[in-house]
């Protein structure tokens, strides 16, 4: 995955262990028929819609979402793409993003270009071998080595911020989102990022169900830099606000997080979660304890550029029920991937994903009950993603 997660500062608390969860969750749609559509207009409005049919219940669920980013509030990058004389453009872009990825995101960049970035480092190694400028070559080789090892200090010192600016990257600014689903629920969100303070995102979202008159509101705040990720959400409940806060600290690959929820109506802390982890990019270890009752852990490892593996373990105090699973994803080529997972309940999940053409992806999945193989009860799933 480009860029590596270890270059983006510590993740928010809900994202701890996400790499391993994605190995077990992404690409599987057991018992579902799913269709997702995404498009973007020239006026910078993003549309996404989707439909899901549950084969067990027969229920069909659909949604439509629009998102608009106000360009006037998106500040351009002050990093230079040509700061390092003689460096290949792709490598300059790579260093630009990785040296301060929390501030900038690609904008108006196609999936094809993003996919190309996944192979930038390999391409640049070949590029460096062809250079014959001695000292300069050694410098760029050092840059590549530091990219791999995650030493951001080196990159930041060797990136000149005073030269030509990039028009390809901009910070998140002001965004408006609206969503409707077939349960007849309307949702809106207003978010502003990197405007009040660098790394700070503030948002306000509401939901309204016209049929029942139910309303909800939530104020969310998040702050992230190279060493800390802070989140605070306030649920504007009429009976009394509910506050959920979390913090994750990162140092030399080590991660420590805490999450808590406070119910102001009862004046009581209703959630106490702690987590510890270690990340080297290709290897991520995560452990957590929820309310002193639920214990969990996961291991994620990228064995090779094509193979990802994951292990999950969970146990609840006072119960003999231990949950254990192993999963893997293997990229056959740039357009196809296979997935497999198995747990201690003898449930076997299989998946196949194929990019049929640019913007069209088909995913097939199946869940096999190993304990009751001859009795049936197995599930299949089909998902089609369209993007233009």
UniProtKB/TrEMBL annotation:
The entry lists its GO molecular-function terms as:
porin activity; voltage-gated monoatomic anion channel activity
Q: Which UniProt keywords apply?
A: Ion transport, Membrane, Mitochondrion, Mitochondrion outer membrane, Porin, Transmembrane, Transmembrane beta strand, Transport
Quote the Gene3D superfamilies the UniProt record gives: Porin (2.40.160.10)
Q: Where in the cell is it found?
A: Mitochondrion outer membrane
Q: Does the keyword Membrane apply?
A: yes
Is this entry keyworded Glycoprotein?
no
The organism's superkingdom is given as: Eukaryota
Q: Which PANTHER family match?
A: GH26960P-RELATED, VOLTAGE-DEPENDENT ANION-SELECTIVE CHANNEL
Protein family according to the UniProt entry: Belongs to the eukaryotic mitochondrial porin family.
Q: What is this protein called?
A: Voltage-dependent anion-selective channel
